[in-house]
Design a protein that fits this description.
Elements lengths: L1 E5 L10 H15 L3 E7 L2 H4 L11 E5 L2 H13 L3 E5 L5 H11 L3 E6 L2 H9 L17 E4 L4 H10 L4 E3 L20 E6 L7 H14 L5 E4 L13 E4 L7 H6 L1 E6 L3 H6 L5 H8 L4 E4 L15 E3 L2 H8 L3 H18 L2 H12 L1
Parallel strand pairs: 1-2, 1-4, 2-3, 4-5, 5-6, 6-7, 8-9, 8-11, 9-10, 11-12, 12-13
Helix pairs in contact: 1-13, 3-4, 7-11
Length: 351
């Protein structure tokens, strides 16, 4: 097949969780013989932090404005078997109009931010990346979040057919690595700052550091306030490049996942960080949300934490028990949560 995607961005992973997911999916699809083109508007804040300059078996189409790229996009859409518009695509309306008018293939909308979308709608706000006509014109609406989110997309936005396409890990990029002194710590957390996630970061990370002052804590990710209160045993790295993720995770005794509030409320919302960390062989501790047991077995493959003391208790577990848990989570991830597995799921849904 030929697939054309209009998305937020894939060339920079700075504060952009869409990037690593699409890189893995596009690589996996191209390895299976599909032709893929990803359209990304060339914006300054991603240009300054760009860490990908071309596709690996697929085509990255960077463009300065929709007006300039529209002729090329029209040609690609005209002979595409599948066209996909994603949440936070800066030209989502123009891309939708193009594929509805000129596309002959299947038309797909992929909301990688469904809980955020639905929460904004519930507040009566307009959502810039949603087409004005809703989602009824698409043949398939995919959601990064499953469960009740799928019903809401049908009831509130007119989606005719919905399905989850969860996060995944690209095993080319995430794998066990030797520990690095630069990232050595007892507990790590990697994630962009978000206001509706910060309470979880404070309870499950920053408060733990206050209780365990003799242990080392490493926070990786951009946009945290400079005046954020953190103990002396907490180091902050404003950006960890994707190429450094294996070393970052591999240098942690335990790593934490915290889910954004809107996503945790709906459930069925596995962050790609869970699968990436598991693929790197580090023991996992995560906040609780409905459906997490569909992805990992609590207590056996992952530790579920509802309060500070749960993380403190996890850090006291013997090293062999933590290693055994990490090995089970890694095996589960290789079997069920890779980019190749999601690419196969996508192709099956399209068929």
């Amino acid at each position: 097949m030929k697939l054309v995607v209009f998305g937020l961005g894939v060339s920079s992973a700075w504060g952009n969780g869409h990037a690593t997911l699409w890189r893995g999916l596009l690589r996996a699809l191209s390895e299976r013989g599909h032709t893929c083109v990803f359209y990304e508007r060339d914006v300054p804040y991603y240009a300054k932090t760009r860490d990908l300059f071309g596709g690996d078996g697929w085509d990255l189409a960077l463009y300065p404005s929709w007006e300039e790229v529209a002729p090329r996009a029209g040609r690609d859409v005209a002979d595409a078997d599948v066209t996909i518009v994603t949440s936070y695509c800066p030209d989502a309306q123009a891309a939708t109009d193009l594929i509805l008018g000129a596309g002959r293939g299947k038309r797909v909308f992929y909301d990688l931010d469904t809980p955020v979308t639905l929460e904004a709608l519930a507040r009566g706000e307009s959502v810039a990346y949603l087409p004005s006509q809703g989602l009824s014109a698409f043949d398939l609406v995919l959601s990064y979040t499953g469960g009740a989110a799928l019903t809401a997309l049908e009831e509130k936005l007119g989606a005719k057919k919905t399905a989850p396409l969860y996060g995944s890990v690209d095993l080319h990029a995430h794998h066990p690595a030797s520990p690095s002194p630069a990232y050595a710590c007892d507990l790590s957390y990697l994630g962009t700052y978000a206001a509706d996630r910060q309470a979880g970061v404070e309870a499950l990370f920053l408060e733990v550091a206050l209780e365990l002052r003799s242990q080392a804590f490493l926070l990786g990710g951009p946009m945290y306030p400079n005046d954020m209160a953190r103990a002396a045993n907490v180091r902050w790295l404003p950006h960890v490049a994707p190429a450094e993720h294996p070393a970052f995770y591999g240098s942690s005794r335990l790593t934490l996942n915290v889910t954004r509030g809107a996503m945790a409320k709906l459930g069925w919302c596995p962050s790609a960080r869970l699968f990436e960390a598991a693929a790197c062989g580090v023991p996992l501790v995560s906040d609780a949300w409905e459906g997490i047991d569909h992805f990992f077995d609590p207590g056996r493959e992952i530790v579920i934490a509802k309060a500070t003391e749960d993380v403190v208790r996890a850090l006291s577990q013997p090293a062999p028990a933590l290693r055994a848990m990490a090995l089970r989570a890694r095996a589960r991830t290789h079997a069920q949560h890779t980019a190749k597995r999601r690419a196969d799921e996508l192709v099956a849904l399209l068929a």
